[in-house]
Amino acid sequence: MAGEITETGELYSPYVGLVYMFNLIVGTGALTMPKAFAAAGWLVSLVLLVFLGFMSFVTTTFVMEAMAAANAQLRWKRMESPKEEEEDSSSSASDSDVLIQDSYERAEKRPILSVQRRGSSNLFEITDRVEMGQMASMFFNKVGVNLFYFCIIIYLYGDLAIYAAAVPFSLMQVTCSTTGNDSCGVEADTKYNDTDLCWGPIRRVDAYRIYLAVFTLLLGPFTFFDVQKTKYLQILTSLMRWIAFTIMIVLALVRIGHGQGEGHPPLADLAGVRNLFGVCVYSFMCQHSLPSLVTPVSSKRHLTGLVFLDYMLILAFYSLLSFTAIFCFRSDSLLDMYTLNFAHCDVVGLAAVRFFLALFPVFTISTNFPIIAVTLRNNWKTLFHREGGTYPWVVDRVVFPTITLLPPVVVAFCTHDLESLVGITGAYAGTGIQYVIPAFLVYHCRKDTELAFGYSIVNKHRSPFRHTFWVGFVLLWAFSCFFFVTANIILSETKL
Known about the structure:
Residues 20-65, 133-456 form the Amino acid transporter transmembrane domain. InterPro entries: AA_transpt_TM. The chain has 496 residues and is mainly α. 69% of the residues lie in helices and 2% in strands. The chain is built from 16 helices and four strands. It has helices spanning 14-25, 28-40, 42-90, 96-108, 110-118, 132-139, 142-175, 204-219, 231-257, 273-283, 290-294, 303-328, 351-384, 393-414, 418-453, 468-495, and strands spanning 5-6, 129-130, 197-199, 202-203. The chain has a two-stranded antiparallel ribbon. A two-stranded antiparallel ribbon has the order 3-4. The longest helix is centred in the first third of the chain and has 49 residues, at 42-90. The protein is globular, with a radius of gyration of 25 Å.
């Protein structure tokens, strides 16, 4: 995850890969989507959700094309290395002009001729897991590589801040109420203030910070070591996610069917579009993890079609979750973490279900936090790494983990506004990773592929959106969104 070429891992079928991609995309962002839907209006939300899902699919195909191009270049280098060694050992010419001419011919002519002779059917096969950082180093210049790492680091910081705030916030909501301990959990129709009492003299904000401190002490040390997500842990968290989302959708549908739905969302409210945009971008984020998802797929013949099917399923799932939520609950009663709306007796009668839904983010996020932290730490190391150099023990084992863990915990200490955290992370760093980086990757990989292999060789995994217009459209959309969100934030703060 530090941007290197890594092992492919155990192969799995295309349909298993489809499930893995679904589980990766449908995460914490989905839990903040209902409130964002209610704030922006159901029609605007639906249109924006569909459009952003389409844009995410476009850039996903861009990344897959870049992965195939990177594999082709690596495969070509491996094919050419033995030849170059043989030529170096058999040739004794010392004329520099001859060497320069020979080098020119190898770089500019022989690849095209050799590929044409051997055929290009397997040249672009995705077999090596080339992470986005390695692709950036292959297709970008030094400035571009540094900007890539800056963007991925900012995004991962936002991810960790969201995780660090979500777990203590869920625990605080479950264990605190304005009237003290309440066996029925959160009052869905009651607004709480951070200064309200939780246990005796301890305020809600104090309880939140206590939970944050415990969360940091328990999971923070994993940042200083290497952690890997096991297959069984992934299966467990995926199973919990499916059960939780299914229960919430079914319960909301039952309440609406019984005439207990209280939601009357507006058709459109442009004031809520800013957060909705960030939440939707964050909720479709998968581009940075595509190499680890796509490479182990055993058969990639219909890869683009399967990814399209995945996006259609995710769109349907997000729409079902959000629409049932906004028509089941009043807009002002929807919480940042949607699971907490089901922690009240009037909504769910069974105590076990109430606590499972309320604490569901705690378990799933806690398993992901150390992995994201180690990923961020490794990206910091790669950004400052110099060829042939090593870090002192203190820098490697203390400094990098500390600068990884401290900022998100400080942000979570200052605020637990999950909707804003998700919105800002998605709107800024998310825009870079989901739109800007894939667009530049596919543009430069196409140019490099044409130079190396000629115009007649076709990338078998090229994007259906192969015209340069789509690259320009994605970049124009990304920068338009960036300026829109920034202007909206400035105007909102000015009014306040």
